[in-house]
Amino acid sequence: MNYIDSEHLTQWVDSGRASIASAKVCAAFHDFLLGLPWLPTKLDWEEIEHDTVDLSELGDADLATLVRQYPLGGHPYLLAMFTPDQPGLICRTEDGITNLDHIYWRAQGFRYFCGVDMTSDGELVYRHEDFGEFDGFAKLTLPVP
Q1: Do 86 and 23 meet the contact criterion of CB atoms below 8 Å apart?
Q2: Is 83 within 8 Å of 2 (Cβ atoms)?
Q3: Which residues in the chain come in under a pLDDT of 70?
Q4: Residue 120: is it exposed, middle or buried by C-beta count within 10 angstroms (0-12/13-18/19+)?
Q5: To the nearest whole percent, how much of the chain has pLDDT over 70?
Q6: Alpha helices of 38-127 — where are they, by DSSP H?
Q7: How many independent structural domains does the chain possess?
Q8: What is the pLDDT of residue 103?
Q9: Which of 91, 100, 114, 118 could covalently link to 96 via disulfide, CB atoms 3.0 to 4.6 Å apart?
Q10: Contact between 53 and 140 (Cβ < 8 Å)
Q11: What is the pLDDT at residue 144?
């Protein structure tokens, strides 16, 4: 079963709150991430200038305001990748960033997401370089511009 088929995510899709990105889109994002420095199971943040935020210390409004200070926050949409060979979830950035625990509820471990823009023709443009990491608990890590 794909993560995107979980009831809590199908409710978002069915309500119009989110849409599904193809596995091909997630594989392309994964390929980008593989070009960065890695430890065995996650990015090696010692090699990437970054900030880490404890989500348990922020309310939704404060978190949304904070994320706008990073490149990810400059995009109207967010791609949440579960694995490179499964479909992902696209939602509004503010909605996604304040609900990472909900989105990744059944996907344990470190998870990655990136910004998404939409052209005037309605085409989605994935901004892999504007990404973040969620540790599955309460830590959000974002590269510093």
Answers
A1: yes
A2: no
A3: none
A4: exposed
A5: 100
A6: 60-67, 93-97, 100-103
A7: 1
A8: 96
A9: 91
A10: yes
A11: 95
Q: Using alpha carbons only, how large is the chain's radius of gyration in Å?
A: 14
Who contacts 130 (Cβ-Cβ below 8 Å, separation ≥6)?
Answer: 70, 71, 72, 74, 75, 114, 115
Rounded to two decimals, the pTM is 0.96
Domain extent at residue 92: 3-143
Closest by alpha carbon to 66, among 76, 55, 82, 77?
A: 55
What's the distance, CA 50 to chain centroid? 16
